[in-house]
Amino acid sequence: MKPGSELLPMLPILLPLGTAILLLLLRKKPAIRNLVAAAGALATIAADLLVCARTLGGEVLTHRLGGWPPPFGILVVADGLNGLMLAVSAVVSGCALWFAFAYVRREFDRRVFLPLFMFQLTGINGAFLTGDIFNLFVFFEVMLMSTYCLISFLGEDRQIEATFKTISMSLVSSTLMLTGIAILYAMFGTLNMAHLAQRMAQAPPPPGIYLPAMLLAAVFCLKGAMIPLHFWLPDAHSSAPTPISAMLSGLVVKVGMYGLVRMLTLLFVPLRADLEAFLGVAAPITIVLGALGALAQSDYKRMLAYSTISQIGYILLALSFGTAMALSAALLYVVNHAVIKAGLFLTSGLFLARTGSVELSDQGRLLEASPGSAAAFLLSAMALAGLPPTNGFFSKFAVIQAGLATRHYVGTALALGAAVITLMYIMRAWQLVCWAPGRASPAPWRPSLAQIGPVGLLAGLCVLLGLGAGPLKALTDQVGFWLLDPSHYLGAVPLAS
Amino acid sequence: MSLLLSITIAVLFGCGTYLMLRRNIIRMVLGLSLISHATNLILIASGWMRPGPAPFIAEEEAHHGGPAGLQAFTPIDPLPQALILTAIVISFASTAFLLVLAYRAYVAFGSANVAEFRRQRG
Q: Cβ atoms within 10 A of the Cβ of A323, count?
């Protein structure tokens, strides 16, 4: 087969897109529509995992859209990093959609929800896979537009408010991104990421290069909610419908992290030291303030949203260290945090179904009422707090080890201190929900399979990835090594000129 | 010409930012669309600033400086104009959604003042 003609790397984009369009056409036929949604999601997951398996084996898959050669046409590229992100996307989106079948009950809501969910997945997978920086902007917009609709489609006041904050922030960040892309194009005359990297490496970059670099870094940090660009996140993630909260905290913020990794290792390699210094200052502040914010919340979902900010700080901190070991730690953290936080957000859906509220003071005695849910919650909570044998322990350990190895003692100490605060807030939440004689009745409560299934699956994954931390770390080590060796990515992109 | 273009972009960005900082929701929407227009102008400029050979001319024609009639011009890069079309469509859709949302917010909160949209704190 000719290089670049293989369809596989396009499938994680095409399958959800096709499913979304089919769902729009079938919106008035409930039975067949649900079947199509499930089949489309399963096919997407299969494609994600297939790409992941191939790329982690060392291949770099490319597909030329319309057969145009790279610097002129749009190229879809999947290397090890993309494979890892697609695996995360498969797990989180699969569980979120499964849970959504229990959460989005009303016929009309489901008619709106299912296609939007698939469009969002299209945008996320597209942003992960594209090798063209303007195309990245377009997929960001696809993802964001469906995100606005998904946050607000139930029409509650607080959702309207959260959407308003999110959309005004996102539109400004889109503008910044487009400006950055325009300046990059004016400087280098290309939009293909590999081509950009090549041209930047050829000559010493002009001094103006800092402008697009800072604009794009600001955009990705805004998407990843680095403090002080975090203000929109707690509202959006806490008031969105539960499965969407899991998607937002599990996947959408990771798109920002993915963008940063690509910037550091491919697009702006000459500026790496400066960008790392910038992240090295912002990351510890994000970790500590996010954790303190989470400690102050009485609403469970809002607490998790602040916790996301804090955990994103750990990923940024690992990225700021700059070694292959630190890069591997950051990737491990991305994977593990997605599994943990998606699971925790889905447990909030269990609380909502049981007590009709996500306020911590309205919960209580879950351990008596439903020991299974309490156990799943405990595993995810332990993982967030970083207790062995769950995966959260190993990712925190990897970040701190990388920090000590590169002698970033201040950042590492703050990260360790914030880990104690994390333990405090998540264990307080577990006690209030499961033990405390709160307002909820201790009468036995049985969640349906679509409610407990995804929660249990994600909690089980927390333990499984913890027990299998060695092989997983070996994989992220390998991906980190590939990322720092530009020829792995660039070698797979044959540029015409 | 490039001075004029940069002044226009600066004025658009300035006015857009000023409007975005107002409390009235409609002014915010207008500010956002002004800013997106400014960005489109930057995109125009990015193609127009670096004139090069005309794209898609057969090699022998390019050798003689392109088809007759084209020789009088310095062709500009057409790619940014294609990008702007995409950007305009996206900002059109976003603005439309934002206007609907602004109306819903007005109904929900009984005010067009953004300072009133504050149910969530902390």
A: 14
Q: Which of these, A137, A199, A193, lies nearest to A170 by C-alpha position?
A: A137
Tokens 């959604």 label which residue? B97
Residues A455, A468: Cα–Cα separation, whole Å: 20
Over the stretch A348-359, which tens digit does the pLDDT of each residue have?
999 999 888 888
CA distance A108 to A272: 49
| Domain spans, chain A | 8-490
B46·A186 Cβ contact <8 A? yes
- Helix, strand, coil: what percent of chain A each, to 5? 80, 5, 20
B7 touches A at CB < 8 Å: no
Separation of CA A31 from chain center: 31
Q: Is the Cβ pair A171, B117 closer than 8 Å?
A: no
Residue of B50, B101, B116 to mutate when probing chain A, most A C-beta within 10 A? B101
Residue A106: CB atoms within 10 Å: 10
CB contact under 8 A, A174 and B94: yes
Please tell me which residue of chain B has the smallest CA distance to A182. Answer: B43
Contact list in B for residue A239 (CB cut-off 8 A) is 120
Please give the torsion angle defined by the CA atoms of residues A331, A417, A377 and A254, in that order, rounded to the nearest 10 degrees. -30
A171 CB neighbours in chain B (<8 A) are 32, 36, 91, 94, 98
Q: Is the ipTM of this complex over 0.90?
A: no
The C-alpha angle A259, A281, A213, rounded to 5 degrees, equals 40
**CA A357 to chain CA mean position, Å:** 26
pTM: 0.92
**Chain A / chain B CB contacts < 8 angstroms:** 102
Q: What is the CA radius of gyration of chain B?
A: 21
Please give the Cα distance from A203 to A194 (Å, whole number).
Answer: 15
pLDDT tens by residue, B29-72: 999 999 999 999 998 888 776 655 555 555 555 555 555 555 55
The torsion defined by the Cα of A429, A431, A433 and A437, in degrees rounded to 10, comes to -140
Between CA A28 and CA A25 the distance in angstroms is 8
Torsion of Cα atoms, A151 then A155 then A159 then A164, to 10°: 80
Q: CA-nearest residue of chain A to B106?
A: A160
Considering only CB atoms, A178 lies closest to which of B87, B105, B118, namely B87
Question: Nearest CB to A186: which of B35, B50, B118?
Answer: B50
pLDDT digits 0-9 by tens, A183-237: 998 888 888 999 888 888 887 878 888 999 999 999 999 998 888 888 889 999 9
* First CA to last CA distance, chain B: 49
- Report the residue of chain A nearest B110, measured CA to CA: A157
A44 pLDDT tier (thresholds 50, 70, 90): very high
Residue A229 makes CB contacts below 8 A (sequence gap 6+) with A218, A221, A222
What number is the average pLDDT over the span A166-175?
Answer: 91
Cα–Cα distance, A445 to A458 (Å, whole number): 21
Q: Which of A304, A285, A282 is nearest to A294 (CA)?
A: A304
Residue whose tokens read 């992941």: A52
In terms of CA atoms, which chain A residue is nearest residue B96?
A145
Site of tokens 């010409």: B1
Any CB–CB contact under 8 A between A152 and chain B?
A: yes
Contact indicator for A242, A304 with CB cutoff of 8 Å? no
The answer to whether residue B90 neighbours chain A at the CB level (below 8 Å) is yes
